[in-house]
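Hi P.,

Sorry for the delay on this. The queue was packed all week, but I finally got your sequence through. Input first:
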Amino acid sequence: MKKIFIIPILIVLLTGIGCTCKNISKTKDTTMDKQFKKHGMVSWSELMTTDVEASKKFYAKLFGWITEDISTGEMPYTTIKADGKEIAGIMSMPPEAKGTPPSWGTYVTVDDVDSTAKLAEELGANILMPPRDIPDVGRFCVIQDPQGAVISAITYK
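Then the structure:
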């Protein structure tokens, strides 16, 4: 079960896409509301899917989201905007994650990701990916809560 969640997240990070992408981080630095850089705020969401085009159409119709394809240098990535602000991203499921169901990932801003990871463990969580740096973005970790749900904590530069 752990493999289902950690492999896609690890692939995203190792390929330099998703919220770790330099293009997105530069854009997010200038457009991300200060409130989303506060401890405890959900600051980014990301969909990994087997059909990006179908997902873009579905969410555009469902929520009125505007999508924009950008170049990451590695593979295509789509940012999602609501009210003119970037709120999330969509990417194709990497080949290494074959068999993993499409899923949304959530990033929550924290003041100190290392302290957050330590506290999460003390509270009974598993750390699926220990704190690590994302160049030009910040530092993050992936937490699996005691009930099995997965979420990422991030401290932005």
